[in-house]
Design a protein that fits this description.
By secondary structure, the chain is mainly beta. About 5% of the residues lie in helices and about 45% in strands. Strand 5 and strand 6 form a beta hairpin. The longest helix is centred in the last third of the chain and has 7 residues.
Length: about 130
């Protein structure tokens, strides 16, 4: 299983960015997927948005609710994170992660932020998002 993130960059506060994560080696019918971010090396990864394999109701962390939207295009095996009204505190490396485990998005996002504790979860290499004036 391989995941690759695209779309990071540097923007000013209030602007928008869209990240994408291309998944290979795993059918979209068989994974729950989420976006996590890490503000600095050594800090735990925060799950910001997760969605189930059935594309049901997503979960959002309070810090991004109302500003970020997660969506998936199963035909392209790709997951997107639309980020609006970006803030300086959104600066981080953003990772996508996919698990074949049957887990609800509201469990994956809060509990899967430590990769070593989730050996069946696959991670991308990360993409940097910097919000600065």
């Amino acid at each position: 299983v391989q995941l690759a993130e695209f779309g990071g960059g540097t923007v000013q506060p209030g602007e928008s960015l869209e990240l994408s994560c291309v998944v290979s080696g795993l059918s979209p019918d068989y994974y729950t997927i989420g976006w996590f971010r890490q503000a600095a090396p050594g800090k735990e990864r925060e799950g910001v948005a997760c969605v189930s394999r059935g594309n049901g109701r997503p979960y959002y962390a309070d810090s991004v609710k109302g500003r970020f939207t997660i969506s998936r295009d199963n035909a392209k095996n790709t997951v997107f994170l639309e980020m609006n009204n970006l803030k300086v505190d959104d600066t981080a490396t953003y990772y996508c992660a996919a698990t074949p485990r049957i887990v609800a998005p509201q469990v994956m996002c809060p509990d899967f932020g430590t990769p070593d504790r989730q050996p069946d979860t696959s991670w991308g290499q990360g993409t940097q998002v910097t919000v600065s004036s």
